[in-house]
Amino acid sequence: MLFPSEAGRRETRLNVNRETSDMPKVFTSEKQKIGEIGENVAVKFLVKQGFSILDRNYTKKWGEIDIVVEKANKICFIEVKSVSRPDLESVSQETLDEYHPEDNMHPWKMKRLARTIQTYLLSKNLDEKEWQVDLLVVFLDIKNKKAKVKVVKDIIL
């Protein structure tokens, strides 16, 4: 026979196991935490620019879309690259111009992103809508809680 507290614990475990597919992502590594902060900064930036957030972290077996937004009847799929810097004062316009995160968009990554975008458009019945892929680079100063955002528009897949 189970004591009431044990029965409650077992039931809790069963509920957690049933709900794992709906649970939010858990970011454990330092790199993942920086990525999550960068995505949050990107969302705030996009909202200030007048975009409506449609989706975040849309994931399929073959890929993930960081952020899906809409503005002026156009869907934008946003890939976010976050870079941690000890001091944003050192991130000048030169740094912003010299750092090319799109170079980290390898052909296999772009192919996976294209497939995920097509899946998203079809699953949401948006396949007739105009769309583009943008890249947001978020430079983070974690210590001082500051950020700078660089936008690379209309990436070709």
Commentary on this structure:
With 157 residues, the chain is α+β, with helices and mostly antiparallel strands. The protein has one domain (39-152): Trna Endonuclease, Chain: A, domain 1 (3-Layer(aba) Sandwich), CATH 3.40.1350. Helices cover 37% and strands 30% of the residues. It has four helices and five strands. It has helices at residues 4-19, 30-48, 93-98, 107-123; strands at 52-60, 63-71, 74-84, 131-141, 146-152. A five-stranded mixed sheet has the order 1-2-3-4-5. The longest helix is centred in the first third of the chain and has 19 residues, at 30-48.
Identify the notable features of this structure and list them briefly.
alpha+beta, 4 helices, disordered N terminus, Trna Endonuclease, Chain: A, domain 1, globular, 30% strand, single chain, 37% helix, 157 residues
